[in-house]
Amino acid sequence: MRDKAPRFIEVALPLPLFQTFTYAVEEGLANPVVVGSRVVVPLRSGKEIGVCIGVSDVSPLKRKPKAVLESPDAEPAIGASLLELCRWMADYYIVPLGVVLRTVLPAALTGAEDPRPTRKTRRLVKLGADIPSLLQRDKSFARSKQQRAVFELVESLGGNTSLENLSAQLDFSPSVLKSLEKRGLIVIEEEEVERDPFSSRGGISSTRLEPTPAQLHAIDTMASATKGDVFLLHGITGSGKTLVYIELLRRIVDERGQTAIVLVPEIALTPQTVDRFRAAFGDRIAVLHSALSEGERYDAWLALKRGDKRIVVGARSAVFAPLENLGAIIVDEEHESSYKQGETPRYHAREVAIVRAKNEGAITVLGSATPSLESWANASSGKYKLLTLPERVGGGRLPSVDVIDLRRIPTDYNAMAQGGVDYGAVIREPLHDAIVETMSRGEQTILLLNRRGYSSFIQCVDCGAVATCPNCSITLTHHRNPERLVCHYCLHKEDPRPDCVRCGGRYLRQRGLGTQQVERLLSERFPAARIARMDVDTTSGKWAHTRILDRVAAGEVDILLGTQMIAKGLDFPNVTLVGVVDADVGINFPDFRASERCFQLLSQVSGRAGRGAKGGRVLIQTRLPGHHAVRYAVAHDYVSFVREEMEGRVDPPYPPNVRIANIVFSGLVEDSVAKFAIHAGEWLRELIATRAEDEVTVVGPAPCPIERIKNRWRWHVLLKSAHPGELTRVSRYFMERFEVPNTAQLRVTLDRDPVALL
Ligand code: ADP
Ligand code: ZN
Questions:
Q1: What's the whole-model pTM score?
Q2: 524 lines ligand 1 (CB under 6 A)
Q3: Most confident region among 4-8, 238-242, 582-586 by mean pLDDT
Q4: How far apart are CA 134 and CA 109, in angstroms?
Q5: Does any ligand 1 atom lie closer than 6 A to the CB of residue 367?
Q6: Could you tell me which residue, 23 or 591, shows the higher pLDDT?
Q7: Which end of the chain offers a freer environment for a tag, N or C, measured as fewer CB atoms within 10 Å?
Q8: Which ligand is nearest to the CA of 712?
Q9: Single residue among 511, 536, 552 that ends a domain in this structure
Q10: Do 274 and 641 meet the contact criterion of CB atoms below 8 Å apart?
């Protein structure tokens, strides 16, 4: 406790304003106010929770500042080093400090309202004992189309889903459910909500593995590193990166008594990695995941702050865990774009991790089989230290990868025009044969198709018109069960029409395959196979994906079909075949990272094959076998891919050859947005000319590749510079000074180091 309280404090508030506020501290507050304390302050006619970021004996204001109303913290909510990190984020990402602080602190500390009461049970809808066969259905549901829709939706969700999920996917009245229940077609049960699935997951073998010489070399090097070092651990798929992390943490946490942060792309999709950490460190670990209630999150936060837990495993935001005496931050699968937050503050957890580790004298470990080009460039220039695990552990070999050229055999357009796609056009013979063989040996297959829904769009055969979203410039995706067209950006839904909106034509053709359709084709072809589909539509609750993966691990699934979700670090030794149904999805996106993403996805999914003694193979169906992303993925040649890809980013320059900030202008009226963006472009060019900041280039303005999202028209301007400092200065000046007119809901956002320009 200080003997004398500061008289004035500087407060950061979570407002979209680049300024802080001065308040007076008067006697009678519950706790002393120091830097890092939360304070409740009067703001206009209301109150706001802010954080004290500075104290002073004199006020910078002419008028008398208002007084702090409450000081709830006996200990500052945020320590000096995390506050320093927040200041860096505010500066680098051009975001008000108060907005950054709100992101960094647990919601329970910044929400003005009480944390939502926790729900303990949920209602589960299951199929009843008697399921009418497909032939009986027309009769059985003759007078109740809605009942049939609900029934078939439950059926398509694996016969078991939450009421919440059902209602989210389909509009129906409560009486429909009651009738179905009365007829015994469904059963409704109360289910205990699993609050923390990790606390109830079964015990996992904790046999300690002996590191291989390559692993040991990496561990030793990192354990004897200098504070602030950044390592890029480039280990091929199956090279045992997780063991390296674990053994490194044993030294840092167990031997030196320090703490550590482990970031994974998404907890629900990486249960095996989390299990391995839990097996090694038991209850010294806090697992932060999205199913935690605000209260539980806060408890975990306190346990970390007090030092009761010394390791945190979590997604992006775990980088802000309030640990003291930090020894290491590990970023697993560092190339994953989920490390970038899609809303303000648009931070990249990998970059934040590096800055935090440097500030606090810790090391950073970035691990991947397919590092981002940014990290690779930094390793090549010596800024990061490169460590390599060039081989699979235990003498395992990378799977052989073969291409099936989809151009060779013509697609069956006749069948497609009739509304269906022929199985043989989708799963070509070599892939089909491989699936049959794999199943006959009792082994498992993973099939990747990075497009969800039934078919990607519906097109009129006569005039070529495609069904598009009324709010976005995006084609609608056709979904079945329930049958409808869905916009994947704004979630707009509509019933499919029998005729073309433009010309009234009666022949509509489904184009482009989605996972739902492939699932149907597979189950028709392999009626006895146990097929599991995994994409964002198959979630019934937060842990549905984890459950599917657990079933695969237990050998209860023959074919796992899914989108990029299934390519994240899974380690199933009985998966001996990986098939890519269509490698070209996304490869032609108008985005500078499209090829990089495609290469990463193909390499990562290939890496799921042959992780056991039985070996494995990969078959990739593509129309672009010559594309460098496909060619080098087939050859397992990361380095050559990077060399070629890097050349493509020289002229015009794109990261990592240059740093960029994407400024997006949006609003309700197309014309105003265009004018606004054009004006901003001129403003920026003038600014750069007068201030002689010729180290920053302005590109655009131009309409965004997706011109309209959620009713908002979008234009953008790119700022490019080889000098991050210059980019910060110009960006900040623009965001602080450029005036946004008060019409047509015009808005400006700035995305520093964007992961996509769509
Ligand atoms: P990566 O993340 O590099 O793809 P994993 O960490 O998933 O690889 O490891 C692949 C498999 O090898 C896992 O099943 C793991 O238990 C096993 N493994 C890792 N290191 C060793 C080792 N030193 N000895 C035996 N098995 C190992
Ligand atoms: Zn839309």
A1: 0.84
A2: no
A3: 238-242
A4: 54
A5: no
A6: 23
A7: N
A8: 2
A9: 511
A10: no
Cis-peptide, bond into residue 60, ω within 30° of zero: no
CATH number at residue 21: 3.40.1440.60
Shortest-distance atom of ligand 1 to CA 332: 2
The answer, yes or no, to whether any atom of ligand 1 lies below 6 A from the CB of 238, is yes
Ligand 1 pocket: which of 242, 276, 397, 604 to mutate (most atoms <8 Å of CB)?
A: 242
Task: Determine the pLDDT at residue 321.
Answer: 96
More confident residue, 586 or 647: 647
Q: Tell me: pLDDT of 2 over 80.
A: no
Q: Locate all alpha helices (DSSP H) within 78-173, ordered by sequence.
A: 80-92, 97-104, 107-110, 134-140, 145-156, 163-169
Ligand nearest to the CA of 204: 1
CB of 177 closer than 6 angstroms to any ligand 1 atom:
no
Highest mean predicted confidence (pLDDT) among 43-47, 372-376, 687-691: 372-376
619 belongs to a structural domain = yes
**Atom of ligand 1 at shortest distance to CA of 211?**
23
Per-residue confidence (pLDDT) for residue 1, from 0 to 100: 46
Q: Are residues 237 and 371 in the same domain?
A: yes
Cβ–ligand 1 contact at 656 (below 6 Å): no
Q: How far is the CA of 469 from the centre of ligand 2 (A)?
A: 5
Tell whether 261 and 374 lie within a shared domain: yes
pLDDT at 376 over 90: yes
- Amino acid type, 45: S
Rounded Cα distance between 57 and 118, Å, is 44
Q: Which atom of ligand 1 is nearest to the CA of 273?
A: 7
User: What are the tens digits of pLDDT across the range 20-31?
Assistant: 999 999 888 888
Ligand 1 in contact with 208 (CB < 6 A)? no
Position in ligand 1 atom list of the atom nearest CA 239:
3
Gap between the Cα atoms of 280 and 260, Å rounded: 14
Q: Ligand 2 centre and the CA of 478: distance in Å?
A: 13
Is the C-beta atom of 394 inside 6 A of ligand 1?
A: yes
611 C-alpha vs ligand 1 centroid, how far in Å? 9
158 alpha carbon to ligand 2 midpoint, in Å? 28
Place of tokens 């470990």: 365
Residue 640: inside a domain: yes
Spacing of C-alpha 459 from chain mean position: 31
> Reading across the β-sheet that carries 477-479, which strands appear in turn?
493-494, 484-486, 477-479, 455-460, 508-513
**Residue for token pair 């006895």:** 528
> Could you tell me if the CB of 610 is within 6 A of ligand 1?
no
CB 353 within 8 A of CB 319: yes
Domain co-membership, 128 together with 172 = yes
Ligand nearest to the CA of 471: 2
User: In this model, does residue 516 exceed pLDDT 80?
Assistant: yes
Burial 576-603 (b: 16+ CB within 10 A, else e): bbbbbbbbbbbbebebbbbbbbbbbbbb
Q: Is the CB of 57 under 6 A from ligand 1?
A: no
Residue 278, pLDDT above cutoff 70: yes
Residue pair 168/159 in contact by the 8 Å Cβ criterion = no
Angstrom CA distances, 111 to 102, 114, 309, stand at 9, 7, 25
Q: Which range, of 365-369, 609-613, 657-661, averages the lowest pLDDT?
A: 609-613
In a domain, 204, yes or no: no
Domain that holds residue 499: 456-511
For residue 256, give both structure tokens. 């030196």
**What is the identity of the amino acid at 756?**
A
List, for residues 385-413, the tens digit of each pLDDT value: 999 999 888 777 889 899 998 877 655 54
